[in-house]
Amino acid sequence: MRDMCGYRAYYYIPDFPALKNDRLLRAATGKEVDKVPVWVMRQAGRYLPEFQAVRAQHDFFTVCRTPELACEVTLQPLRRYEHLDASIIFSDILVIPQALGMTVEMHPGVGPVFPTPLQSPSEIDQLQEDGAVSRLTYVGDAITLTRHKIEGKVPLIGFTGAPFTLMGYMIEGGGSKTMSKTKEWLEKYPKDVHKLLSLLTRVIIDYLVMQAESGAQLLQVFESSADHLTKEQFAEVSAPYLKDIRTGVQQKLEEKKLEQVPMTVFAKGGGHSLDVQVTLGYETIGLDWTVDPVEARKIVGDNITLQGNLDPQDLYKTPEEIKKMTIDMVQKFGKHRYIANLGHGITPQTPLESMTAFTEAVHEAF
Length: 366
Known about the structure:
Layout: H1 23-28, H2 49-55, H3 60-65, H4 67-80, E1 87-88, H5 95-99, E2 105-107, E3 111-113, H6 137-149, E4 156-161, H7 163-172, H8 180-188, H9 190-214, E5 218-223, H10 231-255, E6 263-267, H11 274-277, E7 284-286, H12 293-300, E8 305-310, H13 319-333, E9 338-342, H14 352-364
Parallel strand pairs: 1-4, 4-5, 5-6, 6-7, 7-8, 8-9
Antiparallel strand pairs: 2-3
Helix pairs in contact: 4-6, 6-9, 7-9, 9-10, 13-14
């Protein structure tokens, strides 16, 4: 059942199976763990033959919009890899621009494409903010279904793209190595940029609250384009909105009398701004592979969890090399307030045995 805004009313949330493995949540909130928890960004994805079998029959966004299919591919890596300590719901950050009325297509070999990207700031007013989250309830349905199907084996992570990252896709029309159009907007239309970032922030807050209501036990915000920002730009067009998201989710969950959900911020290429990220209020800060674990801990301190950060390309090494590198990485981070992961998403051609070697090594490190 849903309330009048399209959200699940909190008193109608079904009882979920008891959580059997809470390492991820314990690490995120600073509690003692028996082993370092491990999961991998994009762990439900193209490197798995069982995922490819689903995609052979269904369009990418059809999988995202069909709770039964999204649930199935979310569970696939858990069936294959016994050492995973978390699942992350199968979806995409670009479902938000879709909910705002923009067309997004997934082109084979290219990735996401916007046939009609934002050409000028005047088009911001055409975005359909009203009702946007109600058009994303299929994500909530997939989360609720998965929480039941996962039977408490591990926690379920929900996620979103960050405002600057989403804005970049909406302006560039897809992925971009230069972000030249977006950077032009930053220079030419600063007021309009903040108008768009504010709109996206409002939608993201409600979207994440809906995910928490639906059963997500941890929420991650992907600022995947932070590598295109200088430290000064990060402080201006990324950090304030990331902070607003954390504060807004916290406030709305409190208003709805719902349990607070730990949150992770992952700013790829944002290592230059770790000191700023510390102030944003997130329980966990994700690191890409360019950041040294020891230096990161010095900057972040002992009261925030770190997540990361093996280079995804290292998974093409031999299992023996992967185990050695992983154990070295984990021991540098330490057992307290640490979640093992890659420094970005796992790549499509990654050998299956590499994931086995990585996840096993994490649990063997201490």
